[in-house]
Specification:
Blueprint lengths: L1 E3 L5 H14 L11 H12 L4 E6 L2 E10 L9 E8 L8 H15 L4 E8 L2 H9 L3 E12 L2 E11 L2
Parallel strand pairs: 4-5
Antiparallel strand pairs: 1-2, 2-3, 3-4, 5-7, 6-7
Length: 161
């Protein structure tokens, strides 16, 4: 089931996120976040953007949210989307379900454009974005340095209106 974020979800979400911090290039955070750091991050997001949780059998298996793309006022109708699925829970369409609900809510909130900013290569994330009609609009070479390797970023765009 997909639902809104609850305060008691924070630790489970942090555990999902920190797995990716420590074991992947899906995020450019290098060190695991503390509960306080993660709470502060979420507090900054949920006041203005949808923050959804996927729960099955009382276990949180994923989450998705929108966030500010850049701080300048002219970007206020653009949102960056984020989806994380718990390691080991892939292949159940959790990301697809979360993304469908997130995009619906972003459209209802009158956002104009959604951007997916992906470390590439990442076939699963590319496939997810393109499933919803996102188009690749940018490729940034060697813009992140993680695990002693330069990482590339692609940007996928979806116009909601």
């Amino acid at each position: 089931m997909i639902r809104e974020l609850k305060p008691e979800d924070i630790q489970a979400l942090l555990d999902i996120y920190n797995y990716y911090v420590l074991n992947s290039v899906a995020t450019f955070d290098i060190d695991a976040l503390t509960l306080d750091d993660f709470q502060h991050k979420i507090d900054g997001i949920k006041k203005d953007y949808p923050f959804l949780v996927y729960e099955e059998n009382n276990e949180i298996l994923g989450y998705a949210y929108g966030s500010r793309f850049r701080p300048k006022p002219a970007y206020s109708h653009v949102v960056e989307s984020t989806v994380y699925v718990k390691h080991g829970a892939h292949g159940k369409q959790i990301g697809t379900k979360l993304y469908a609900d997130l995009l619906k809510r972003l459209k209802q909130n009158n956002f104009h454009t959604v951007l997916g900013v992906l470390t590439i290569p990442n076939d699963a994330s590319v496939k997810l974005h393109e499933h919803f009609g996102f188009e690749k609009v940018a490729h940034l070479n060697e813009v992140g340095f993680k695990f002693d390797t330069w990482q590339h970023v692609g940007i996928w765009q979806l116009k909601l209106k």
